[in-house]
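During the reporting period, we have paired protein sequences with backbone structure tokens. One record among many follows, to show the layout:
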Amino acid sequence: MLDVIVIGAGVTGCATARELSRYDLKAAVLEREEDVCCGTSKANSAIIHAGYDAEPGTLKARMNVQGNRMMDALSKELDFPFKRNGSLVLCFDEDNLPGLEELRERAEANGVPDVRIVAGDEIKALEPNLSPDVKAVLYAPTGGIVCPFKMTIALAENSYVNGVDFHFNTEVTDITRTAEGYLVHTAKGDFAARCVVNAAGVYADQFNNMVSAHKLHITPRKGEYILMDKKAGDFVTHTIFQQPTRLGKGILVTPTVRGNLLAGPTAEDITDKEEVCTTGEGLAQVVDKARLSAEKIPLNMAITSFAGLRACEEKGDFVLGEAEDAEGFYNAAGIDSPGLSSAPAIGLFLAEQIAGKLNAVKKTGFISERKDIPCVAESTPEEIAALIASDPAYGNVICRCEMVTEGEIVNAVRRPLGAKSLDGVKRRTRAGMGRCQSGFCSPRVMEILSRELQVSPMELTKAGGESYLLTGTTKEFI
């Protein structure tokens, strides 16, 4: 029997697994997809909120501010990209200045440092490309940007090397309470555990409702985005918000840690928990509203669009901790924005609760640090020479747009919880994320995957499941 099962290998589940791996506990993560970071964690704004937006006293406010404070040390320990670029909230009408002041007061109540309202020429000094209609901005210097793929993968890899098992393609179908804890039924058999962590994103309400009379209801909220080329990456340096509404923080414009420019998301409540398609109407909304913040935003440099789902619980706050009537069942439900920012704090919160429940002790020999795949595109000539000397494959460029080499892709496949699909390589190395969107490099990445995994190219997938990349051969080779 396991001590703990974590359902879901998104950023919240992996952050919880990493904190649990500090203890002498037998833990496992069950994930229905073929890899970590396949749901909400891979399709979001990639920002670390400062913490001024959430209502004081809520779990969102507490976890956001604590998670933000943890990010510098965590990114250094686990070697993933993070930058404090600061954020601005734009006010276009002097009649709405009281709303901006309310956000500043929330920031103060939540413990967010150095937040202030800026007006006049200082606005242009902060961001020259903003609309001239902006009357004032709320400036929060502790806001940041992060790579959500790298962050989630880093948390998962570190959990794994510290003893947490990961079971992919393992969809949970039911949960049964037992005298010892819980029996988690999956498509690949049953798993018994004393405690369960429900970090299942938009499906977290279903798992809670299997064991608790206190029902949850999660609505998927779809957000559509437009990603622009790196040539547009310096259009703004801060993360630019518009004053928030009931549905969220509006259309943002932000640089990414890898130098692109991102605009979005929309906010549409839907019923289908698998609907992540973009629409002409949604992308037109992104265009129109992004131009309110900055009329000259270079949307003609768009290289792709995408959509993600946020798990919105009807009461509007995170649902965290042990269910009142289901001992040993811990929820991490309704983790919508600012979920990415809050994940490290949520993981710590749940792990401490579970360790206390199970009287677990900290293990000796916990490995706190992890090194990422070397990035040739961001290395100095001396560093590149050293990499090539250690392995000539680091001199063989596979993805021209992002300057990703064969050595990086091989590293991505061979490392703990390595890539098994085209998207798995993309999330770990950025191969295919550039201007041509894998038009050039995908066949070459497939060759490397086939060789490293020792499988036929016919078995390779884009993202696991039935997403096969090849349907047949055009000629037979002798």
